Amino acid sequence: MRWQDPTAGPGQTVGLFGGSFDPPHAGHAHLTREALKRLSLDRVWWLVSPANPLKRDRPAPAAARLQACRQVITHPRVAVTDIEARVGTRATVDTIDALRRRYPYLRFVWLMGADNLTAFHHWDRWQAIMAAVPIAVLARPGQRMPALTSRAARQYARYRLPARDAARLAFHPTPVWTFLDMPMRGDSSTALRLAGAWPSDAGAG
């Protein structure tokens, strides 16, 4: 199957939701819908990565993960894409740079779960990511305090945008980030892998 580059209209705001999605689940879809609503995004792109450089184990084949993502999220304003593999990037900072060059007419927001903010300072050139795009941190079960006391949160505390202003995050000068509390789901890719299961709620969008 050939996967086309995702599209959006000039000036639109696009949330970038990256990860291995190994496997994708309803929790990913839930965070995506909340981001669309709370951040007033025009689109969200799921960037299905070839592999996570911070994880030792190889993920399931990319084709299987892409197809599973297409089954888990069917929202008309959400695109599932393998563009990271096709532009040849692995590190998030390089992916963002490549997308900004390819789509100079769009406004990007990086979306991450709260658990990712906790470990954000281990990401390659993480401070360059903060400088490149606004970041929205989405609540995950049991991760609020670890995220908000993380090195990244403390170092960039003065750049945190109140959640009540999240709808204008995409238009705010960088660095800027916000933390969004929301109803949470306990779905976990790790738990699904350990159980030997892939998502059973296909089509939840």
Describe the protein.
With 205 residues, this protein is an alpha/beta fold. It has helices spanning 26-38, 62-72, 83-87, 92-102, 114-118, 126-132, 144-148, 151-155, 189-194; strands spanning 13-19, 43-48, 78-81, 107-113, 135-138, 177-180. Strands 3-2-1-4-5-6 form a six-stranded parallel sheet. The protein has a single domain (13-194), classed as Rossmann fold (3-Layer(aba) Sandwich), CATH 3.40.50.620. The chain is built from nine helices and six strands, in the order βαβαβααβααβααβα. Helix content is 33%, strand content 16%. The longest helix has 13 residues, at 26-38. α2 links the parallel β2 and β3 (78-81). The chain is globular and about 40 Å long.
Keywords:
205 residues, Rossmann fold, six-stranded parallel sheet, 6 strands, 33% helix, disordered C terminus
Total beta-strand segments? 6
Strand content: 15-25%
Taken in chain order, the helices and strands follow as EHEHEHHEHHEHHEH
Sequence stretches where pLDDT stays below 50 over 5 or more residues: 199-205
Strand arrangement within the widest β-sheet reads 3-2-1-4-5-6
Rg calculated over all Cα atoms: 16 Å
The figure for the number of domains is 1
Q: Helix tally?
A: 9
Give the helix level as a range of percent. 25-40%
Largest sheet report: 6 strands, parallel
**CATH architecture classification name:** 3-Layer(aba) Sandwich
Structural class: alpha/beta
